[in-house]
Amino acid sequence: MKRYLIERDIPGVGSLDAEQLQSTAKAGNEAITELAGKVQWEQSFVVADKTFCVFRADGEDSLKAHAKLSGFPITKITEVSAIIDPMSAP
User: Fold this and answer.
1) How confident is the model over 7-46, as pLDDT tens digits?
2) How many CB atoms lie under 10 A from the CB of residue 72?
3) How far apart are CA 32 and CA 18, in angstroms?
4) Angle at the Cα of 57 (from 53 to 60), degrees rounded to 5?
5) Considering all CA atoms of the chain, what is the largest pairwise distance in Å, rounded to the nearest integer?
């Protein structure tokens, strides 16, 4: 599976409380269950009016299916070509 960054424009998402964010996560998990191994959600970063999500998927069509099932539209899909971090330096 490839890794993707998913950008979602969701006005006000950064003001949701913990219970509302849990409900959002539940909807995402239910969609993943329905897609049976085609999509894996790693994590999401929530800011004022957007989320930036890290997913693994077998392709963009599965990500779009997840968005439709979960009710969270995708603004932009970007395939990750490499990952670096502080440990990547010699």
Assistant:
1) 999 999 999 999 999 999 999 999 999 999 999 999 999 9
2) 19
3) 21
4) 85
5) 43
